[in-house]
């Protein structure tokens, strides 16, 4: 199972072709609008899409680099939710979000009036979006959905924990961002009654 070898930066040439199929009507050139105001972009939808795709590819490469530098070496096919958590904690050192500890006088203050020595972390929203992109990238690169380490229960629980603790530490509520999460039903027992 070596279909995961796309981490080599040299093999990215095929994926640099951004999917334009949404607006690609072959050889059909629409007539220009009468008032040629050139300020409007051709298609904002595809721009947004490719920005997401670019970000996803960058994230995927970052994770691949993380795996390559991992000691002991770690292949994607052996990667579990625990390794994803390891990766997320590793990213915290590059974080820019101050998360106050319980001992900090500014705990629960969204806008502290003075600096404090509390650590900087990755904001929950960034991690949540990152995991979403990596989860999609994993399957686009040949990973099986049921083996997706980014969809592991431990990762979901960790993200929820980060969200709650950051909400408390900064006195802000993430509830307004609440959205429907796909609920994974518990696996059904096999229906064949083996005696
Ligand atoms: Zn603090």
TrEMBL record:
Its main location: nucleus. It holds the Pfam family ALOG_dom. InterPro entries: ALOG, ALOG_dom. Residues 1-54, 165-195 are annotated as: Disordered. Signal peptide: none annotated. It comes from the Eukaryota. Belongs to the plant homeotic and developmental regulators ALOG protein family. This is ALOG domain-containing protein.
């Amino acid at each position: 199972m070596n279909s995961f070898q796309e981490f080599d930066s040299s093999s990215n040439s095929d994926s640099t072709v951004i999917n334009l199929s949404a607006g690609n009507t072959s050889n059909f050139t629409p007539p220009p609008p009468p008032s040629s105001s050139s300020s409007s972009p051709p298609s904002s939808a595809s721009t947004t899409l490719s920005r997401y795709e670019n970000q996803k590819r960058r994230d995927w490469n970052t994770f691949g680099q993380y795996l390559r530098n991992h000691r002991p070496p770690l292949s994607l096919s052996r990667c579990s939710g625990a390794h994803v958590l390891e990766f997320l904690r590793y990213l915290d050192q590059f974080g820019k979000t101050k998360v106050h500890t319980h001992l900090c006088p500014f705990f629960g203050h969204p806008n502290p009036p003075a600096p404090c020595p509390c650590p900087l972390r990755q904001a929950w929203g960034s991690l949540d979006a990152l995991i979403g992109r990596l989860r999609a990238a994993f399957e686009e690169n040949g990973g099986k959905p049921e083996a997706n380490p980014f969809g592991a229960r431990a990762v979901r629980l960790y993200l929820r924990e980060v969200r709650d603790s950051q909400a408390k530490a900064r006195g802000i509520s993430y509830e307004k961002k609440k959205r429907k999460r796909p609920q994974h039903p518990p696996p059904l027992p096999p229906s064949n009654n083996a005696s």
